[in-house]
Each structure stands twice: as C-alpha cells, then as structure tokens.
C-alpha cells in the first residue's frame, strides 16, 4: 500500500511519466514486502516552487507514504534510488530534491482497512 507523489517545477512528458512509473515500480521493492502491484503514484508537474529562497526551474519534492515501517538502511537505499531516478528522467540535480517518508498503521482500501 505505498504511495509515491512527485511534485516538480519541471514539465513531465508522457515518456518521462512512463519511465518514472516503471522505475518507481522497481524502486518500491527495495522496501521488504512492498511491490508495484499495490503502488499508487501521483505526478504534479509545472509546480511553482522555491529552494533556498530562490525560484528555480529544477526542483523536485517526493513523498513516500506506506503502511508499516522500514529500517533506516532501507530508506537510505530508497532515497538513493529515487534521487537517481528523478535525476536521470527529469534532469533535476540531487541537491534540489527532497524526499519525505511517512509511515502509517492504518490504511484504507476498498471500503475497509488493512
């Protein structure tokens, strides 16, 4: 039940979105027990954002929400993978990418909770 939401100042083309979908589907499997089958994705492009007090055309913010938790080592690996993915696909420098993790004990789906 993971959800990855990407917000960026960049335009996300259909080709870039397809590459991100495929890549994030592989990256989420870094977290034990998580698979692309249950992965939901959100993409918000052309966002008005600033970093370090300056508007910049190359910024990205990624939120990763999941049922349960993971170890610090797993999050380190996932941060590296997501950062590389956003750099490679969108051309955003890793120093301009923030990634936030959110863990929850309660996750609803199909009218009930897990």
- What is the helical fraction, as a range of percent? 25-40%
**What is the subunit organization of this protein?**
single chain
How much beta, percentage-wise?
A: 25-35%
Average of per-residue pLDDT values: 96
Outline the structure in words:
This protein is of the alpha/beta class and 114 residues long. It has helices spanning 14-27, 72-90, and strands at residues 3-8, 40-44, 50-51, 54-55, 60-67, 97-104, 108-109, 112-113. Strand 3 (50-51) and strand 4 (54-55) form a beta hairpin. Helix 1 (14-27) runs antiparallel to helix 2 (72-90). It is globular and about 40 Å long.
Features:
114 residues; four-stranded mixed β-sheet; globular
Topology:
Layout (H helix, E strand, L loop, with lengths): L2 E6 L5 H14 L12 E5 L5 E2 L2 E2 L4 E8 L4 H19 L6 E8 L3 E2 L2 E2 L1
Parallel strand pairs: 1-2, 5-6
Antiparallel strand pairs: 1-5, 3-4, 7-8
Helix pairs in contact: 1-2
Summarize the model shown.
The chain has 114 residues and is α/β, with parallel strands linked by helices.
């Amino acid at each position: 039940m993971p959800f990855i939401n990407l917000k960026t100042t960049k335009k996300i083309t259909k080709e870039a979105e397809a590459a991100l979908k495929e890549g994030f589907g592989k990256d989420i499997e870094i977290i034990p027990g998580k698979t692309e089958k249950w992965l939901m994705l959100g993409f918000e492009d052309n966002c008005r954002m600033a970093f370090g007090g300056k508007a910049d055309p190359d910024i990205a913010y990624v939120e990763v929400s999941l049922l349960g938790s993971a170890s610090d080592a797993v999050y380190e690996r996932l941060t590296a993978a997501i950062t590389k993915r956003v750099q490679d696909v969108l051309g955003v420098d890793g120093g301009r990418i923030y990634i936030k993790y959110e863990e929850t004990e309660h996750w609803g789906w199909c009218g009930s909770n897990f």
